[in-house]
Amino acid sequence: MKVSIFDVAKKSGLSVVTVSRVLNGAETVREKNRQKVLDAIKELGYHPNAAARSLARGKTGIIGLIVTTLQDSFFDAVVKELNEVLALHGYYLAISVSTGIGSDESHYLIQEDRVDGLILLSPMEEDNYIVELKKRGIPYVLIDNQKPENDNFSVTIDNFKGGYAAASHLLDNGYTSIAHLCGQEMFRSTRERRDGFMQALSERGLAPFEIVNGDFEIRFGYETAVRWLKEGQLPQAVFAGDDNIALGVVNALMEAGVQVPGQVAVVGYDDQTISSQLHPYLTTVRQPADRIGIAAADMLLKRIDGTMKRGANLKIDPELIVRESSVPGRRA
């Protein structure tokens, strides 16, 4: 039997009017009651009639999402959260995997009347997108954007804190010779994570073993560690700019019989799914995909319904997850 709005009202103990207000993103609903409605919707598996609601609002009922890749468990988790939250509000999520505004997929999404709003996840040509979206009057939200000057209507991670936390963790465990393998300079996250790392070392009067830029790929970490082995010089610890780089380092070291973390400690970034599945379990800095997705969806919905007119940047703190790869003797 199909679940109706009346079933949701009964389950939550609230009126149909209140449920309707929650579904339409009204700001007049108390947070406690809003959560009751959302919990009831999830438990009952209720799906609003998006077509009917779209007609009533004069909207398409579609939110566009442009992302550079889905071959990333962090991005996947953010997209999953966005999809769930937007579905609760009667929206469908249309996803375009695109590296630039000139692609057919992204061009289709930002045409007038195609979408009610657009989310850009880690965009590479954000200036061009923003110009076009403003011209067409399409509400948008950026996630993990590259330029601070575009922080209006954005959700970002405090990557400086993440880099600082990773370095401080290694320093607190007695490591003083620490290398940092980071991403390309074009990425804001690269620059901010490195700045946090350097700040932590500077406070202890230390310099890094080495800082190397490369791609966020396993091969980069692997080849750098192989070079260190050939040169006969290894750092005591490595802070990798993402988990893929960290896994490459671990692979090269373990192939050469170097113990991780017995001889070299390793810390990654992102908390990709694989980081807790391979031994040694990887210490990493988690980006809370659930909070990011919820915050971005909420911001966009407020822009669409007109309750958010002034720009705002929401910066979310990452979390250090300590596992085997950085603390000898530790078990996850």
Automatic annotation (TrEMBL):
Residues 3-57 form the HTH lacI-type domain. Keywords: DNA-binding, Transcription, Transcription regulation. Pfam families: LacI, Peripla_BP_3. GO terms for molecular function: DNA-binding transcription factor activity; transcription cis-regulatory region binding. The keyword Transcription applies. It comes from the Bacteria. Gene3D superfamilies: 3.40.50.2300, lambda repressor-like DNA-binding domains. The keyword Transcription applies. PANTHER family: HTH-TYPE TRANSCRIPTIONAL REGULATOR GALS, LACI-RELATED TRANSCRIPTIONAL REPRESSOR. This is LacI family transcriptional regulator.
